[in-house]
Please model this.
Amino acid sequence: MNKKDSKLHVSHVSESDYKKIEEKLLKVSGLKSEDALGEIGAQRCGLTRVEVARRQQTFGKNTISNEKSDSLLKRLLKAFINPFTVVLFILAFVSLFTDVILATDKNPRSVILICSMVLLSGMLRLIQETRSNKAAEKLKSMVHTTSMVERSEEGLLEIPLSEMVPGDIVHISAGDLIPADIRILESKDLYINQSTLTGESEPIEKGNHPTEASNTANEDHPSEEGGIAVEQPASITDLPNIAFMGSYAVSGTAVGVALATGDRTFFGSLAKEIVNKHVETSFDIGINAVSWVLVRFIIFMVPVVFFINGFTKGDWLEAFLFALSVAVGITPEMLPMIVTTNLAKGAVAMSHKKTVVKHLDSMQNFGAMDILCTDKTGTITQNKVVLQYHWNVYMDEDIRVLRHAFLNSHFQTGLRNLMDEAIINRSQEEGYDFLTKKYEKVDEIPFDFNRRRMSVVVRDTATGMTQMITKGAVEEMLSVCTSAEYEGKHEPLSAELLKIIHDTVDKMNRQGMRVIAIAQKDHPPDSGNFSIRDECEMVLMGYLAFLDPPKDTAASAIKALKKDGITVKVLTGDNEVITRCICKQVGMTADNILTGIDIDKMDDDELQKEALKINIFAKLTPQQKARIVRVLRSEEHTVGFMGDGINDASAMREADVAISVDSAVDIAKESADIILLEKDLKVLGEGVIEGRKTFGNIIKYIKMTASSNFGNMFSVVTASAFLPFLPMLPIQILVLNLIYDISCTAIPWDHMDPEYLKTPRKWKASSIGKFMVWIGPTSSVFDLTTYIIMFFIICPAACGGPFGAPGVNDVLFISLFNAGWFVESLWSQTLVIHMIRTPKIPFLQSRAATPLLFLTTVSIAVGSAIPYTPFGAAIGMSGMPTVYFLWLIGMILCYMALATFMKTAYIRKYGELL
Model:
């Protein structure tokens, strides 16, 4: 992306905010280091405790306000404003006019009842979603991102990002998030990825040279740091000595001073455009698709109901209210609450299995995942690296190799890994600590993933002799060496010696060991600022061999994942020999391995074909990992990527679900949707099953509610065309819907059949419509049977004749009819939960969880009792005679038998129920 494109990313910021931030950053960027510190009242040794407390009071937490959870007012509005409550509000408003304001005999019961229903519905949703959100926030708080700062009394210490204040002296290493807008004071080969701000994927180099003022842009001005002042860039994000909050260090090290924190940062000014910018996941796509299916049914049915009842009954206001009630009757109003509760419950369940869900929506993607890409170290291996050998080039143990490696690992300040720790631990055991006093560090060339090596320059404090010590991957080390050391002498890297080196390394790799090389160069040219160009004409000293054996659980975990329909693919930067050895040990087929060199020769179509067939990829760069994930996703697979290093961040952002661990580098944890508190595929496998349970209960609610609501409303619409009165009043439909929805609130706690959890599950919006049309009308058969029995048998018997006949109480007739249909609809709608929740025979082969059994039983009991209560009378219902329940039981048994038959036929036709 060019500079002009980069500027476009800030075009939505308000002009005044952007101008203030730009002016401040430009000013500080043009100052020398001491002047920059003075500008914000900071010192190179760091702030005092008193000053930190004062600035925290003044500037607040280092957080972006747009990341805060919804306020209580907003949550109240969301809970009480939805299609269900909107219709209730309309009904209440109409009842207020017809029954209270305009009526001679004022009766406010309907208004009170409707308002009570609004309150009950809204409070249920508010309480449940508040509990769910609190659970999610508690889980997210288990994962901490920190930064290294220098404070005057404490020295160097690690603090949470939120506690940083302007003026803090910040230490940055590869993999660190930039915690604030920072003016760089010192740097070494620092490369920053600013893609979050600019969209540019390539990292850019940042240093400590001040920029020129715009009016002197064509002159060369020496800076205090010994370099030349840099010309002022076209875009604010290109300032060469400012690191912005929201970006991260790809390589190198730096020390800087925090200029601004939280909302006062450049990132904070873009927060509304960046933080709230939501990438559409398969979860969002699925929910939207389901919603549109329901919307199409509503758009079709509501006008039909309105016009049929308007023309046949003549009361257009009542027809309008009835049509609205039918719309609500079709809609699964509790869907947001059920979805949120399911996701939150699943996240809490996963937390008990050492898995933290950062983004609730990722639960569904976790369960839908059918390809898992993972790194090797720490996932398949134990991540307990032990230094096995320190050999010279002829495989003799050599203490000089270990001593030089120790100096390199001890003095480096960049991305220290487990091999560094193993080298330091072994050296301390051998008593080489004294070397830290004998030598002092002169300079450092940090590790990066292209060179795959790092160097330190040290000076002997006694003699003043300097030497560069470099360690890294063997091939990359050989490319900068011209000779090898053996028994105090240097011999050229001849073809014969190179063959010995390659054979030795290959042999150790085949034994499952990771090998790196160590080299040195005496008296490197003192340029005052060492760089990659100085890594040349070095002397190879020998090898360091490390063992990281496979985890005991790895083989069984991979086998279990495969059994659950998930293909595991290993993507590693390690060489193919050691990767093949480790993968074979855990039961993976390692005959075919694709390397980074092979991948670079393929276009995306070729890579896609190979990537689907091959499960092991070695010698990969971060960009190659991301490319593999991208081409796998393009085949409509749901791809997860598990990583913990900075080299995994790009691939994690490409994946449907990004998985990391609590010990990962900052950028990996920030990129992750799921964080494992234990880096183990077995733990991940348990989380996947929990994700499938969560999705299963969500789709279960949608299908059973949409189909049963559709069936009931289809019956109501059909009957309303022939009956001389409404089969159910609008308020009765809403009460029926409310009772049913309350019974559904227990669905998140329901079981899923083990067979359902064996394969990945994805959204299939088209199946919702098929299910509604296929299963819904099943209940209509018995709804219409109820209509016939009530209209021609039970109501005439109770009222002394047919509807409209002389001497017949038509008001009682209608209230009995409404009550009979109300109870039958509730029974059939509630019992269908048990019919549809499983492809098996309900109650016998598969029984619902106790909370669901309890709530559905209570709902049926309460709904059946309502016609006999003052509440029932208030909403236009009367108690039915005992004979009604004999008819009802017979119809419900027949309905359950027919529903089971239709369910079996549906499974036979479409291959699945949910």
